[in-house]
């Protein structure tokens, strides 16, 4: 039975919320639209008796990029028409697994579905997968940043496998039917995990201006624990921003996790050292690398006995009483009989096997008694002179430096090979890796707006479902607009508190807590 004050509280709080909402215009129009859409959809579905397992739903519209993009893909039309499955074989792999025959599907998320939203899902376990699509136009690394962003959800967790993408170089031989592990790429970016090694790759291929060789350069590791992103079965957003000034920054869920510079924060470095060791230089034979030497003036003390043994018989030991010096520990078995087939000529003289002497069973011991051995207090071992600083020490030798014949200086590694396709070439021991909302643009704001229209909705739905599950107030929500509006906004604001109205957030959170209490006592 509900206490009367509960209803009063609810009524007052609802009125307060409505009044407050009328007085204050919401600052973020997008949030408003989202939440109102959420309510409208919810109400409509409640009327239609729609799926009650989805406690929060939003009106989903396939996002449309708002600025110049080189590639954008939502998969929401259910087709892979712009994508090409690889028809080739992986090099250097056993024949039975060399084919890129892993299956891809376009389907909805397994958990926290957003109706109308589909993604690309890697379906096969322990198979090679390869799929790629051409960009609308090549991205040429000149004066615009490269922004590449996409979503990953490890729907079944991840044991060992990758979810990274490759931006394929714009070469004459680029043929997506032949996409494989050696297809030239300019950038590789995204999650990868095996065992306890959690990686977020950012690798680019740099062309040596002297000889044209391409070498992989690996950015330093991210500054955060990646495990939570790969194991929580939620959809996470991965963003790489690469700027013409060679700086780069990597984001997960729009929070920076790593940043650096292509000239200073990659391994191996883009530019080789100006000088290198002279391979012809040899260490002089008389080069003295001994920092310490035995003191040449030290003398062995006269009383130092190098021959004293380390162990001696214990001088204090006393033979235990009852010890039988004249009895052997083993005696011939008196009950043993010579076997009938024993041939003394062939087998030698027969002897009974030895058994423990019965006379020794009740006494401390038999045979000749010896005192136990103990450490010798006079033992000193071989005398060695103490070590002193070597006056002739010359330090550790190293060869002289000479000018590096392979030296070059490339101050613009950003200007890498243009990219013309986006490919996923992956192996995984866990299936159901979900990808969605790929975008390549020259403007981070375009990627951010795209994210708020796509990934932001997914996160809102997932967070709202989580709250709904945790406080069991789904039936209540379906009856009460204020509670849903309140809690949806609170959840949505939870991650945006720094950018939104703190007072509004605090108020809503407070009201939500009251609702929680209300249901606790219900
Ligand atoms: Ca989608």
What does this structure look like?
There is one protein chain. This protein has 522 residues and is of the alpha+beta class. The chain is built from ten helices and 25 strands. Strands 2, 5, 7, 8, 9, 10, 11, 15 and 24 form a nine-stranded antiparallel beta sheet that branches. Strands 1, 3, 4, 6, 12, 13, 14 and 25 form an eight-stranded antiparallel beta sheet that branches. Strands 16-23 form a two-stranded antiparallel sheet. The radius of gyration is 39 Å and the shape is elongated. The site of calcium ion (CA) has 8 residues, from strand 25.
Taking pLDDT < 50 over at least 5 consecutive residues as the criterion, the unreliable ranges are 1-6, 15-55, 473-507
**The top level CATH class name of the largest domain:** Mainly Beta
> Number of folding domains?
2
Main beta sheet: 9 strands, antiparallel
According to DSSP, the number of beta strands is 25
User: Structural class given helices, strands, pairing?
Assistant: alpha+beta
Assigned CATH architecture of the largest domain: Sandwich
Strand content is 25-35%
Q: Helical region count?
A: 10
Which ligands does the model contain, each kind named once? calcium ion
Characteristic key phrases:
Calret/calnex; binds calcium ion; 522 residues; single chain; 10 helices; disordered N terminus; alpha+beta; ConA-like_dom_sf; Jelly Rolls; nine-stranded antiparallel beta sheet; 23% helix; Calret/calnex_CS; 2 domains
Briefly summarize what is shown:
With 522 residues, this protein is α+β, with helices and mostly antiparallel strands.
């Amino acid at each position: 039975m509900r206490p009367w004050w509960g209803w009063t509280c609810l009524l007052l709080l609802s009125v307060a919320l409505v009044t407050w909402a009328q007085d204050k215009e919401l600052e973020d129009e997008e949030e408003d639209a989202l939440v109102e859409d959420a309510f409208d959809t919810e109400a409509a579905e409640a009327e239609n008796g729609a799926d009650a397992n989805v406690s929060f739903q939003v009106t989903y519209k396939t996002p449309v990029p708002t600025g110049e993009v080189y590639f954008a893909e939502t998969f929401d039309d259910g087709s892979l028409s712009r994508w090409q499955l690889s028809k080739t074989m992986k090099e250097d792999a056993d024949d039975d697994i060399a084919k890129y025959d892993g299956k891809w599907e376009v389907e909805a998320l397994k958990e926290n579905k957003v109706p109308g939203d589909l993604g690309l899902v890697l379906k096969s376990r322990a198979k090679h997968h390869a799929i790629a699509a051409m960009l609308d136009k090549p991205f040429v690394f000149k004066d615009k940043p490269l922004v590449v962003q996409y979503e990953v959800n490890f729907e079944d967790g991840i044991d060992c496998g990758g979810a990274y993408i490759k931006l394929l170089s714009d070469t004459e031989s680029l043929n997506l039917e032949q996409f494989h592990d050696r297809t030239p790429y300019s950038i590789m970016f995204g999650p990868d995990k095996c065992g306890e090694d959690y990686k977020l790759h950012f690798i680019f291929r740099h062309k040596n201006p002297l000889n044209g060789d391409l070498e992989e350069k690996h950015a330093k590791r991210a500054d955060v624990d990646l495990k939570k992103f790969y194991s929580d079965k939620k959809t996470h957003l991965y963003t790489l921003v690469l700027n013409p000034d060679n700086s780069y920054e990597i984001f997960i869920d729009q929070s920076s996790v790593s940043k650096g510079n292509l000239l200073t924060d990659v391994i191996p470095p883009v530019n080789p050292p100006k000088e290198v060791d002279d391979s012809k230089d040899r260490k002089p034979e008389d080069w003295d690398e001994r920092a310490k030497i035995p003191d040449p003036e030290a003398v062995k003390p006269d009383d130092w006995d190098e021959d004293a043994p380390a162990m001696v018989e214990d001088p204090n030991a006393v033979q235990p009483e009852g010890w039988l010096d004249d009895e052997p520990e083993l005696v011939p078995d008196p009950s043993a009989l010579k076997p009938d087939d024993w041939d003394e000529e062939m087998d030698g003289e027969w002897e009974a096997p030895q058994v423990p002497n019965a006379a020794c069973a009740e006494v401390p011991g038999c045979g000749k008694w010896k005192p136990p051995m103990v450490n010798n207090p006079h033992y000193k071992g071989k005398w060695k002179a103490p070590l002193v600083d070597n006056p002739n020490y010359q330090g550790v030798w190293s060869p002289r430096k000479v000018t590096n014949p392979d030296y070059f200086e490339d101050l613009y590694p950003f200007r890498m090979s243009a990219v013309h396709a986006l490919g996923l070439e992956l192996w995984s021991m866990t299936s159901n890796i979900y990808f969605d909302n790929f975008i390549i643009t020259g403007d981070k704001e375009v990627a951010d707006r795209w994210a708020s229209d796509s990934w932001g909705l997914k996160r809102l739905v997932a967070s709202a479902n989580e709250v709904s599950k945790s406080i069991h107030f789904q039936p209540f929500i379906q009856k009460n607009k204020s509670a849903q509006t309140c809690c949806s906004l609170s959840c949505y604001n939870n991650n945006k508190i720094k950018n939104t109205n703190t007072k509004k957030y605090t108020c809503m959170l407070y009201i939500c807590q009251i609702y929680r209490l209300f249901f606790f006592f219900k």
